[in-house]
Each structure stands twice: as C-alpha cells, then as structure tokens.
Amino acid sequence: MQTKIAANAQAMKRWLGKAETALGNHSDRLNAINIFPVADGDTGTNLYLTVRAAAQALNGPAAPHHPGTANPAGSHGQQDVGALLARAGEAAMEQARGNSGTLFSVFLCAAAEPLAGHTRLSSPLLAAALNRAQIRAWSALSDPVPGTMLSVMEAAARAAAGVDADQNGDDSNHALGLALDAAVEAALEAVVRTEDQLAALHEAHVVDAGGVGMLLILDCLRSAVLGEELQSEMLDGLHGYDVQDPHIHADLPDDDGVEVMCTISLSPLDAATLRQRLDEMGDSVIMSQVGGTMDAGGKYRWRVHVHVSAPEPAVALIGSLGEPTDISVSQLALPRDPNGHER
Fold first, then answer.
1. Is residue 247 very low, low, confident or very high in pLDDT (cuts 50, 70, 90)?
2. What's the CATH class of domain 9-64+71-251?
3. Number of other CB atoms surrounding residue 328 within 10 Å
C-alpha cells in the first residue's frame, strides 16, 4: 500500500491536469477506435478538449468569497474539494464536445455534489461521488446504451461502493487506496466487456473508445491521489488499441447528419418539452443542467446535445423555447482537428 496519499484539493487539480495530458497523448488511438454511436473518429479529441477546459478552469483565480455564505476554503483554510470540482465541471459543461465530452462533464458536475463542504476525499465520499456521477450520466441520455462509457462509470462506482461496505465506512487513507484500486480494476474489466455488449464493436473487434477514455480518467485520479505512476500496461491487449492497429473508423461508411450543441436557459417544463421533441427529431440526445441555480425567471441553464439529419429544424426548435448561446453545428462525417475546427 502507498506510503503517502494526498486526497485534498491540490490532488484534484493534479487529477485533471494528468487527465488532460493522458488524453492528449491517447487521443489518436481513441479516435481510431471510435465507431459508436457514430464512426466519426473524434472521441479522443472531444474528451481531451473537454477535460482541458475543466483543468484550465482551476488554473485561474477562485471565485470570491462573500460574507454570509459558506466558506469555499473549508475549515482551517483548506479548499473545499466539492466546490473546486463543481467549478471545473461547470467549465467542462460549457465547453463540452461530443457525446463523450458531454457525458464526462455530467459525470464531473455530479461527482462534485457529495464532496461539497469536504476538504479531502475518502473512501465513503469516493463511493458516493462515483455513484451520483454514474446515475446522473445514465439519466442525461434519452436513450442510454450499455457497453459505453456509462457502463465503465457504473462498474467503477459499484467497485468503490463494495470496498466502502467491506471497510465499514472507514475514512482512512488506506481504505481510499483500496477503493481507488478497485474502481480502476473494475473499469478496466468493464472496458473489455464493451466489445461484446455492442454489435458494432463486436463486428469491428474493438473496445469502446469512450470507455477507454473514462478508464484513463479514473486511472489519473488514482495516480494523482496515491502518488503512483499511471498503469499504462493495463491498456496492453485492448482490441484495436495497439499503435500498429489501423484507424477502424476510417473503413466504415460516413455518417450522415450533424451534431448540434448549445447552452440555453429553460424552465423545467420547457426542458422536458425540448428533450421529447429532440428525441422525435434525432438521436444521441443529452440534456444536463449547468450548475444548479435557478434564475429569477424560474429557469435553469442546460447543455443540449443532439444528432440530427439537418441542423435547421433543431436550431429553430431550440430557439423557439429560449435564447441559446454557444451554438455549434458539426458534420458527423468530418472529424475535427484538436483546435476544434472542422476540416
């Protein structure tokens, strides 16, 4: 077991910094095996850009503290881990790219909630955070599918909860190390299983790209907290992931249609209406709140993602319910470069 464990806010910053670097290094291979839900070869790029937004949000000045509110620095001047990750999650959500980036943003925002008011991560808090995150990610999608990064999130959460139960809620660093080890091991097993859970992956003989990306992110958390190196050897043998393997997605037919994303303030009723009508219009519908604060008009900010055959009806529908910002329309058949431009 590790001799020195750091599970405070600085460790969370290291986590997202490590994840940014790891995803940057692995983006090409993640893109190469990205064939579900569409073979657009951009899962690695999307995850990298989204995690980069989260990491960069923590490099700037923290939000100011106002008298009469909870102290974000926590007791004894230590920084609130939940507040820190909530800030990173909101930045990721505002700049999320694609299915994978949006789901990671949902994951991060939800994971921050049980950590609010705490200055260090523990096994019970890790279990609670991972469970909240996987539930929220599953619910953000209108039509969630097993065999994706959702299954990897769920497996990690179940493993952490199992360790926490076995340790009777022990909040020691030792128990946290066991929980992190178990979560990453379960995530790896879930990644391997994805190949047989989705017909498209089974036929192409590859594992799910988003699932591998989530595995990398979880191993970066383990590495940052436990002070150990990333377990790069765990990726050895994942089908389609060796550097000599071809770019699987390049041999598949181009996907017609576009991906539409935006941020918009909506009432709960209008949000439900938008989700239902987008479900009728397209697929890969993801809607999640950006932050949890309602404005004076009773509206919440939402991040919206959908795949449709043509952008105009979707954009018109969204505009009929509110004033969207950060609208992006990307051809599914045209992978984007790391700077976010179509090519």
1. low
2. mainly alpha
3. 15
The answer to whether 326 touches 94, Cβ cutoff 8 Å, is: yes
199-210 mean pLDDT: 90
User: Which of the 8 DSSP states describes residue 80?
Assistant: P
Please state the φ and ψ torsions of residue 90, each to the nearest 5 degrees.
-65, -40
pLDDT tens digits, one per residue of 75-88 = 445 799 999 999 99
CA–CA separation, 91 vs 182, rounded Å? 29
What would the pLDDT profile of 123-149 be if each residue is shown by its tens digit? 999 999 999 999 999 999 998 999 999
CATH of the domain spanning 258-331: 3.30.70.1710
DSSP structure string for 91-111: HHHHT--HHHHHHHHHHHHHH
DSSP letters spanning 35-55? -SS---S-HHHHHHHHHHHHH
The domains of the chain are located at 9-64+71-251, 258-331
